[in-house]
């Protein structure tokens, strides 16, 4: 499976890379939402793991809205260290 992981925390990225490689998956990673949007059509991921709070100009939620607005149906999983009341609803 080809996984796009949009994450600006190097420790989180390193952990996911190790786990994904053990399962034989390919991981394409970006630290900023702009780069993920620019390369999405070229990368053609099977799954997107999206950090909610990204550095740069776009949050993960803005990136997801943009992808869905472009009619992409790829499964997207929100990844966040923040688990506050209302976050689930905000992501959905």
Shape: globular
Which class of secondary structure composition applies to the elements? alpha/beta
Strand order of the biggest β-sheet: 2-1-3-4
Number of helices: 4
Poorly predicted runs: none
* Series of H and E elements: EHEHEHEH
Largest sheet: 4 strands, parallel
Overall average pLDDT: 90
* Rg computed from alpha carbons, rounded to a whole number of angstroms: 13 Å
Helix percentage: 40-55%
Distance from N terminus to C terminus (CA atoms, Å) equals: 24 Å
Number of DSSP E strands: 4
Share in β-strands: 15-25%
Search tags:
4 helices, 4-stranded parallel beta sheet, 42% helix, 4 strands, alpha/beta, 92 residues, globular
Structure characterization notes:
It is a single chain. With 92 residues, the protein is of the alpha/beta class. The chain is 42% helix and 21% strand. The protein is built from 4 helices and 4 strands. Strands 2-1-3-4 form a 4-stranded parallel β-sheet, with helices on both faces. α2 (33-43) runs parallel beside α3 (60-69). The longest helix has 13 residues, at 10-22. It is globular, with a radius of gyration of 13 Å. The model has no long low-confidence stretch (mean pLDDT 90).
Briefly, what is this?
The protein has four helices and four strands. The protein is of the alpha/beta class and 92 residues long.
Topology at a glance:
Elements: E1 2-6, H1 10-22, E2 26-30, H2 33-43, E3 47-51, H3 60-69, E4 76-79, H4 87-91
Parallel strand pairs: 1-2, 1-3, 3-4
Helix pairs in contact: 2-3
């Amino acid at each position: 499976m080809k996984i796009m992981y949009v994450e600006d925390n190097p420790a989180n990225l390193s952990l996911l890379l190790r786990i994904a490689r053990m399962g034989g998956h390919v991981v394409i990673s970006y630290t900023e939402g702009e780069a993920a949007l620019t390369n999405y059509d070229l990368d053609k991921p099977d799954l997107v793991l999206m950090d909610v709070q990204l550095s740069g100009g776009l949050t993960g939620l803005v990136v997801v809205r943009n992808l869905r607005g472009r009619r992409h149906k790829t499964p997207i999983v929100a990844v966040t260290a923040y688990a506050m009341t209302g976050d689930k609803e905000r992501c959905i």
